[in-house]
Write a structure and sequence with these properties.
about 675 residues; alpha+beta; five-stranded parallel β-sheet; about 45% helix; globular
C-alpha cells in the first residue's frame, strides 16, 4: 500500500509530452484541453449521475476540481500541454477564462436551442453542449482514442492521474489501476483508458512501480529538469531557437520579401534586421570583428527624399555615367551569393514620403512570378529596377572604328568587382564564379534572396503611410519587451555556426493559385482545398468577405491582394506544421484562425483610422445583422466592436496566438476616449 514514486510520475509526464509531435504548437494545447474537459465531464457524471450545468456555481466548481486531476502539477501551477513552462492559476486551471467564457460554452448560451460539439476544432468531438449544459455523449467516446493513439500514452495518462491516489495492495498492478480509476470514471471510459490487454500490461512493466509510504509533492524544478537536455540544445546561438523565437517574422518574410517593423523609438526594430543578417551570414561574408555582416545593408532614409534616385541612382550628364547607389550595389552583391539571405534595413523609412521615393520598387515587387531559368530551375523573377543600358556602360574604355566604346565588364561578376573596386587577385578569387550576363542582357531585377525591412516610427516628425504601401507590405508592430532583458548575458548579434539559408526563407508561393498545386497539404486533402477556394458554406474567401461586410462604407475594405497574401501566409503555416505533425481538417481550422489573426494585424488594421462617424453603424446595417446598440461596457457598438466580435478569439491557452482582438480593444478604447482612433500608437 502507498503512493506512486517520483520517478514513475515524472516519467509518465515526459511520455505525455509526446502526445503531440511538437508540444509547443497550438494543436498540442488544444488536444490536452479536449482531454481534460472530456475526462472531467465523465468524472462529474460518474459521481452525480447527471450532466453538468455550467450555469450552476456548484456544478462549475466541481467540474473544475475534476479538470485538476489531469492538469494540476504543483502549488498554483498547472500544465496546458504536458511540457514547459508551467502556468499559474487561481484554482481554476484556466477553465473559467478559456472554457466557460470563450468557445462553445459561450456559443451555446447565445444560441440556446442549438446543440454544439466540443471540441469544435483540433480533433473529433467528445461531448455536446446545449444552453451551457455539458452533455455526456457515450456514442462519441470512441473518438477519445484519436487523442491518445498509443498504448504508451494511455498507460502514462493512467499513472499521471493516480499520482496523488493512495493505492491499496502490496504492489502496483493492472487490477490496482482499474480499481483506483473506477472510483473516478465511468465504465465506458475505463474500457478505453484501462484496456485489459497484453500491450497495456507490457507497457506498464517499463515503469518502476514501487510504492512509497508518503505522497510525493511535485516541484516545478522536477518538470523543467525533464526537458533540460532539450533546452541545452537550444543555446542562445542556436539557429533552431532563433527560428522558433522569430517565427512570425520568418512566416511574414516567406509570404512577401517586404516587411515593416513599427513601434516607438528604441524597441529594437533595426536590431532585429541585424539579428537576421548575423544568423544567416556565411563564413566568407563575415567581418573579422563581428560587427557588420556582409549580407546586411543599412540605408538611412533622409527627409528630403522625394523620388527614386536616392535609392536606385541616376544617369549623370555631367559625369557621363550612371551613379550607382549603395542600395543598388548591395542588390548586385546579393546576386553573387544566391543561396544566402541578404537584408536591407531602411531605417526611419517614413521620414520621407514612402510612396514617392519607393514607388518603382513597390511596382516591381508586384511583378514577381515563378519562371524556369536556363538551367531548368524554377525561380522567382521580377520586373527591372535599373535598365540594362546603364550596366553596359560600366567599365567602357576607348572607341572602336564606329566610335563605340569597348566593354570590359560583360558578366554580372565583372560588374560586381568593378562597382566594389575589387582589384586584388586574392580578393577577386573569393568572389564566386558566375558567368551570368543578366545585368547587361536584362537589367537589375529584384534578387530572390533579398529582403527589404523598413523600420517605422509614427509621430509628428514622420509621414503617414498610404494604403498603397501598407497593401504591399507585411506589417509587424513592436512594443518592446521586458526592460530587465537589457541586462541579459545573451548576445544575439553573433554569427551562427550553421547559418540560416534560403531554404529557411525561400518564398515557395507568389500567387494564391500556386498554393493549390504546390502545397502538399492542400493538394492532398480535398476538404482543405475546397475550404481555401470557398467551395462550400464556409471558406477562406467567405471569411474575408465577412470582414469586408463589417468594413463596408469605409475606405478600408480589402480585395484580391489581401486574399492572395492570406492564402500564401496560410500555406506557409501549413508547410511549417507538416514538418512536425500531420495536418487534419480539424487542425487546419486552427491554422486558418492564426492566419486570419495575423493578416488582420499585418494587412488590414494598419489601414484603419477615423473618427466616430467613420465607424458608426447605420440603423439599416444594425437591423439587418441583428447588432446591439451598445457594447458590454456601455459605449456605442461600432464597426470596430463588430470586427472584434468576428476576429479570432483567444483565451488563456492561446492568448499569444490571437492578438487582433487585443489590438482592436486598444483602438476601441482610444476611439471612446478621443473620438478618433488608428492602428498606430
Amino acid at each position: 500500500m502507498g503512493y506512486l514514486n517520483k520517478n514513475a510520475i515524472l516519467k509518465a509526464y515526459k511520455e505525455l509530452s509526446h502526445i503531440s509531435k511538437d508540444p509547443t504548437l497550438q494543436g498540442a494545447t488544444q488536444k490536452v484541453s479536449a482531454i481534460r474537459h472530456f475526462m472531467a465531464l465523465d468524472s462529474f457524471y460518474r459521481i452525480n449521475e447527471r450532466n453538468c450545468d455550467t450555469r450552476d456555481k456548484n456544478d462549475k466548481n466541481e467540474f473544475i476540481q475534476y479538470v485538476g486531476y489531469i492538469c494540476d502539477v504543483c502549488l498554483n501551477l498547472y500544465t496546458t500541454n504536458f511540457y514547459i513552462p508551467l502556468k499559474e492559476h487561481s484554482k481554476d486551471f484556466g477553465v473559467g477564462s478559456n472554457f466557460y467564457s470563450a468557445g462553445q460554452v459561450k456559443v451555446s448560451l447565445v444560441n440556446t436551442e442549438e446543440v454544439v460539439d466540443y471540441p469544435k476544432r483540433g480533433g473529433k468531438p467528445l461531448f455536446q453542449i446545449q444552453n451551457g449544459v455539458l452533455i455526456r455523449t457515450p456514442e462519441l467516446y470512441s473518438n477519445f482514442t484519436s487523442y491518445i493513439e498509443h498504448t504508451k500514452f494511455i498507460v502514462a495518462l493512467c499513472l499521471w492521474i493516480l499520482r496523488k491516489e493512495y493505492i491499496e495492495g502490496t504492489e502496483f498492478t493492472y487490477n490496482n489501476i482499474y480499481t483506483a480509476l473506477s472510483k473516478l470514471y465511468t465504465k465506458e471510459l475505463l474500457s478505453i483508458l484501462v484496456p485489459n490487454t497484453d500491450s497495456f500490461k507490457k507497457e506498464l512493466e517499463k515503469y518502476d512501480l514501487t510504492l512509497n509510504e508518503n505522497f510525493y509533492s511535485i516541484r516545478e524544478s522536477d518538470i523543467t529538469s525533464l526537458f533540460k537536455e532539450k533546452s541545452k540544445d537550444n543555446s542562445s546561438n542556436s539557429v533552431e531557437k532563433f527560428k522558433m523565437e522569430k517565427a512570425k517574422y520568418l512566416s511574414a518574410l516567406r509570404t512577401k520579401p517586404f516587411m515593416l517593423l513599427a513601434g516607438i523609438s528604441g524597441t529594437g526594430k533595426s536590431r532585429i534586421v541585424r539579428e537576421f543578417a548575423f544568423k544567416s551570414c556565411k563564413v566568407e561574408l563575415q567581418d573579422a570583428d563581428g560587427t557588420e555582416p556582409g549580407n546586411y545593408c543599412m540605408i538611412e532614409v533622409k527627409p528630403n527624399w522625394h523620388d527614386s534616385t536616392e535609392l536606385l541612382g541616376y544617369w549623370s550628364n555631367l559625369n557621363k555615367q550612371y551613379m550607382f547607389t549603395k542600395f543598388v550595389k548591395f542588390l548586385i552583391k546579393a546576386k553573387m551569393y544566391p543561396k544566402t539571405p541578404f537584408f536591407v534595413c531602411l531605417d526611419e523609412m517614413n521620414l520621407a514620403p514612402v510612396e514617392q521615393y519607393f514607388a518603382e520598387f513597390l511596382s516591381v515587387l508586384e511583378t514577381r512570378k515563378h519562371i524556369e531559368n536556363e538551367e531548368g530551375e524554377v525561380c522567382i523573377k521580377s520586373g527591372v529596377l535599373v535598365d540594362k543600358e546603364y550596366f553596359k556602360k560600366v567599365g567602357e574604355v576607348g572607341n572602336n572604328s564606329q566610335g563605340h566604346a569597348y566593354p570590359t565588364c560583360q558578366t554580372d561578376r565583372d560588374i560586381y568587382m568593378k562597382l566594389f573596386d575589387i582589384v586584388d587577385k586574392v580578393e577577386m578569387e573569393k568572389v564566386p564564379a558566375n558567368d551570368a550576363k543578366t545585368l547587361t542582357e536584362v537589367g537589375l531585377t529584384l534578387p530572390e534572396n533579398v529582403f527589404i525591412i523598413g523600420t517605422v516610427n509614427m509621430d509628428d516628425t514622420t509621414h503617414q503611410f498610404s494604403r498603397k504601401v501598407i497593401d504591399r507590405a507585411m506589417t509587424i508592430e513592436m512594443n518592446g519587451g521586458n526592460l530587465a532583458d537589457i541586462f541579459s548575458d545573451k548576445d544575439e548579434l553573433v554569427y551562427a555556426e550553421q547559418p540560416l539559408t534560403m531554404d529557411n526563407l525561400q518564398a515557395k508561393y507568389v500567387s494564391a493559385k500556386e498554393v493549390l498545386t504546390l502545397c502538399s497539404t492542400v493538394k492532398d486533402n480535398e476538404d482543405i482545398r475546397n475550404y481555401i477556394i470557398g467551395n462550400g458554406k464556409e471558406g477562406l474567401p467567405q471569411r474575408l468577405e465577412e470582414i469586408n461586410k463589417v468594413l463596408n462604407g469605409t475606405p478600408f475594405t480589402v480585395s484580391y491582394r489581401v486574399m492572395n497574401e492570406l492564402t500564401i501566409y496560410l500555406a506557409v503555416l501549413l508547410d511549417q506544421a507538416k514538418e512536425k505533425e500531420e495536418v487534419t481538417l480539424d487542425s487546419f481550422k486552427g491554422y486558418v484562425e492564426t492566419a486570419i489573426d495575423k493578416i488582420l494585424l499585418m494587412k488590414i488594421l494598419p489601414r484603419v483610422e477615423g473618427d466616430d462617424e467613420m465607424f458608426h453603424i447605420s440603423d439599416k446595417e444594425r437591423n439587418a445583422n441583428e447588432l446591439s446598440d451598445q457594447a458590454e461596457d456601455g459605449h456605442e457598438f461600432t464597426k470596430l466592436d463588430w470586427l472584434k466580435q468576428i476576429a479570432p478569439q483567444h483565451n488563456e491557452d492561446n492568448q499569444n496566438e490571437y492578438m487582433a482582438v487585443d489590438k482592436l480593444a486598444e483602438m476601441i478604447e482610444r476611439l471612446n476616449r478621443q473620438s478618433f482612433t488608428r492602428f498606430w500608437p
